[in-house]
Amino acid sequence: MEFRNLCSLETFRDICSPSGYSENLEDVIKNEFTRIKGVTYLDHAGATLYPESAVREFCLDISKNVYGNPHSHNPSSTLTHDTVDRVRYRWDYNLILQHFNTTPEEYSVIFTSGSTAGLKLVSEAFPWSAPTATEPGSLFCYLTDNHTSVVGIRGPASAQGALPIPVSPSEVEGRARAGVEGVGGHDGPAACQTPHLFCYPAQSNFSGRKYPLGHVRGIRARRLYPACDHPGRWFVLLDAAAHVGCSPLDLQSCAADFVPLSFYKMFGFPTGLGALLVRNQAAARLKKCYFGGGTAAGYLAGEDYFVPTANVCDRFEDGSVSFLDIIEPHAFGLARYTHMLLSSLCHGNGHPVAQMYTQGQFDSPDTQGAILNFNLLDCRGHIIGYSQVDKLASLYNIHLRTGCFCNTGACQHFLDITDQEVKNNLKAGHVCGDSIDLVDGKPTGSVRVSFGYMSTFDDCQTFLSFVVDCFVEKPPRVDRVRLENLRQTKTGPCGNSSAVDTTLPKNPYTLTHIYIYPVKSCAAFEVCDWPLGASGLLFDRSWMVVNGHGVCLSQKREPRLCQILPRVELPLGQLSLSAPGMENLSVPLESAATLKTIQRVCQSKVCGDRVETVDSGDEAATWLSDFLGQPCRLIRQSPDSIRGGQKRLNTASTAVLSLVNEAQYLLINQASVDLIQEQIRNGQPLERQDLISRFRANLVIAGVEPFEEDSWSQLIIGNAQFLVGGRCGRCQMICVDQDTGAKSKAPLLALSACRSGKLTFGVYLSRQVQGDSPSARTLSVGSAVLHRTLDLSL
């Protein structure tokens, strides 16, 4: 079955019926979401999109009404107070309590800045108790598949004597015991009154798995684990933030004690407003230490005397509410269709394209939300790092999310990451939110796409076509048996990795080009021979251009930088700059002793490193500002500023860096460039020299097989010795034509095709300087290149 034939609306209806794609929503999408034309937005689990009418009505409302502080008593303040109360309480309006099928008699709405703020409020106000000689202490029990903000409750809980207990999803029912209902349960009489809190998500923000809402009653009645093993009064916090974006929540059938949520997850707007729904029976047990404006019935400034307001909402809303910041089968059908096709998609050699992370069957919106979580695999079964997927998706204007999604527990479970590996990765420099996606070939995170009510079938098509174009060995194939069985059978793990051929020739090679980039992100300066400095080629990336706020400019944001040609003229002792339509500018190459005495010293940042820099003066600033059309300055690395190599490179312990991103030198080979050139099609041929310039290497060699340099560990070029520090990860910079500044994604797509989605090309080098001779301090074009290959069999 051809994959393209499956990407049709007719096939979608046939596969997913009656899952529920609603074409009736197309008029809504056309009228309310005109701004996303050409954009494939697949991060609704992060934040859904707001309808444009909501913003228009909001602006109209605040432009016609005067809203004052609700704690005053003037007319504008009364309007605010009444409006907030109407949103909070009125049943005859389709508002908060009605939306969750409950009433003010059952629940109170406490406005917060978002779901996390609601969780923090519970963590601080819950009546935790430390163990005594006669009573056990409180327990804070949480599902391991919880958002970071829920797990964070254990800090305040532990500080007040409570014992944190992580609970795996299988333990809740797997360790349940019958016959304890009414004995120590939340609503029944009990000798032990120690308060305990159990927290779980209605829907996992990692995998989209929906947990039974019946757990609320089961925990409070002490039928389910861990409540069945511990007497006391059990309260339940149901994290509804991910669930309510596309699914209804009926608090009549699952009366959780605390329900935090964020409105931007539901409506896209406003982003600074959420709520904590508190069951009134549980509200009386909350203890609040801090009191802010509007929460006190009365207090004394000179004495520890404070009486809270009687109203629960007023008592917990510190200060003034952000009063100006006051839909499921459709989304699930799209998600299920995408899941089925992605799960059955294969490379031309028959190996699967994706490893899916889902629990159980993806066949019902009752058990699964509109979230897909996965990693892509190359044709040998090796995982493609999520940062590579993210970079290419951005080129296609596809908005998705990568990483661990603030859910370490689920990430560890699905990716089989041990606690020790998490700690080791952290020591190695990997932190949440960075781009280190693979450590020793093992993924540190994954890719997540999620759908909302304004998502369309075109979004599915665009995403699936993107995967095929960028990551699938042609021709794409579909596992028909797997596709037909997906309605009944669980998606399992994908194939094993295969070995890599590491046999390499050991003939000498030749250095063909030397480039230095005196000004970071500006044009290259080609030379035939050049001296080597302590941090790389002499004067390579010694200067950089910063904007009016002191932030370094790059071609990603200012492609015209490529038209600025710097030249280091050693005999004249100057740096010259030229650009179209501009007079040439000369900047003196001052000695280290005088540089800091004649110019202003300032602090700057390069790739997260703080570096001391020296301003190059007003003349250079004016020249750059005139050409780039914005306030700019030229700054140079201070001679006293020393940067070490990046942690993830093998050379980190010895290499001293200039203003480069990663390492002292970057090397590429022409054979690899030629292979990439052959991949570029669609009427966009690029000359070899054009491609070489886009990759912005210092050293270019000839006479090798494509990408052979990936396996090298050491190099000798002429008489200079180098260590290989790692591969160079590529981004949108290679899309910029280095002559004109025009952008084309053809080089990045060609690189992805050559490397099965891995966006790496070139290797980083650092020079071994110990005991070198004077002849080793210069590089010349035509020098022989010798290499040593890594032993990959260990």
TrEMBL record:
- Positions annotated as active site in the UniProt record: 406
One GO BP annotation is: Mo-molybdopterin cofactor biosynthetic process
**Which EC number(s) are documented for this chain?**
2.8.1.9
Q: Show where the MOSC domain sits.
A: 637-788
Please write the reaction equations for the catalytic activity of this protein: Mo-molybdopterin + L-cysteine + AH2 = thio-Mo-molybdopterin + L-alanine + A + H2O
Obligatory cofactor(s)? pyridoxal 5'-phosphate
InterPro entries, per this entry? Aminotrans_V_dom, MoCF_Sase_C, MoCo_sulfurase, MOCOS_middle, PyrdxlP-dep_Trfase, PyrdxlP-dep_Trfase_major, PyrdxlP-dep_Trfase_small, Pyrv_Knase-like_insert_dom_sf
Entry function = Sulfurates the molybdenum cofactor. Sulfation of molybdenum is essential for xanthine dehydrogenase (XDH) and aldehyde oxidase (ADO) enzymes in which molybdenum cofactor is liganded by 1 oxygen and 1 sulfur atom in active form.
**Sorted alphabetically, which PANTHER family does this protein's record hold?**
MOLYBDENUM COFACTOR SULFURASE (PTHR14237:SF80), MOLYBDOPTERIN COFACTOR SULFURASE MOSC (PTHR14237)
Family to which this protein belongs: Belongs to the class-V pyridoxal-phosphate-dependent aminotransferase family. MOCOS subfamily.
Kindly provide the name given to this protein in its UniProt entry: Molybdenum cofactor sulfurase
